Amino acid sequence: MLAIKKLNNNAVLCRDGQGRDVIAMGRGVGFGGDFPRELPLSKIEHTFYDIDPKGQDVMRDLPSDIVMFAAKVMDIVANELPYDLSTNATLFMADHLSFAVARAQKGVRIAMPLAYEVRETYPKEYKAAQFIVMRLEKELGERLPKDEIASIAMNLVNARVVEAVKATAEPTKQFDDMLEDVIEILESDFRIIVDRDSFDFTRFATHLRYLFKRIQAGESLNSANMQMYKNFREEFPQLAECVKHIGSYCRETWDATLSEEEELYLMIHLNRIISKKGL
């Protein structure tokens, strides 16, 4: 495999025999020598396809042991869930665990008031999250607070692949306009500037892309999350009000009504963005 760029000491950007870009990880694969150069397959411990430049930047800054751990456990978790996970699911998990470990090491604890609802609504994801927390302590010696289990479970929920709406072409400009309008609503409601180059923004943009496709196709997400939706609104009233404004925008601009399920997912994604702002 041809290594063309060093990301860090244990990760390099490569090009495989079919001309596809792939991130290869292994102990010391980034050490020594100029690029491009041939990388023996025997030195590669894990590969990641379909990682965009922003994802590559995130991987460059993540601890290699966390990324390798996430890759291993996500291979197992993926077989336990009744749906496909995003190609970036491992990177999402590594990013999440990296922050969780950093918080735990500093003694910072983030309460998850909806932990019971998460466990009841998403039992498979909660069980998988328990497994991840257990393996993290056993393999890396990092012990996370119990509240992190629910948070990791929601990370898995957010990483699931929503079946894309069939369409011959996506109206890119319309989507870009929708994304920018929604972010402007968030910035106005919370009086913040959203970092449009951040990994969290990329994750939210991906979620909004699927929402836009469903709006265009006249489809909607619906499930039995009514209690969780109600509790989330009660715990985060300002966030719920912001999503209400986004819902009004969708009705006025796209003649589409968001289901409670859609509003719930919007609140979860937006909460991750504003939580990084300390709000």
Automatic annotation (TrEMBL):
Residues 61-166, 170-279 form the PRD domain. Transmembrane segments: none annotated. GO terms for biological process: regulation of DNA-templated transcription. Keywords: Repeat, Transcription, Transcription regulation. PROSITE patterns: PRD_2. PANTHER family: CRYPTIC BETA-GLUCOSIDE BGL OPERON ANTITERMINATOR, TRANSCRIPTIONAL REGULATOR MTLR. This is PRD domain-containing protein. It comes from Collinsella aerofaciens (strain ATCC 25986 / DSM 3979 / JCM 10188 / KCTC 3647 / NCTC 11838 / VPI 1003).
